Amino acid sequence: MTKFLGALGGFFKRTDYIFWFLTIAASLYGFALIYSVARSADSEKGFLATQILAVALGYICAIIISLMDYNVVCRFWYIFAILGVLALVYTYFFGIEIVGTDDKAWIRIAGRTFQTSELVKIFFIITFSKHLAVLKERNKLKTFVGVMTLCFHALVPIGLIHLMGDDGTALVFGFMFLIILVLINTLKLIVRKKAIKFPRIPLSLQDITAALSIMKLMEKHILQKVNLQKSQ
Question: Which three-class secondary structure state does DSSP give residue 194?
Answer without folding.
Answer: strand
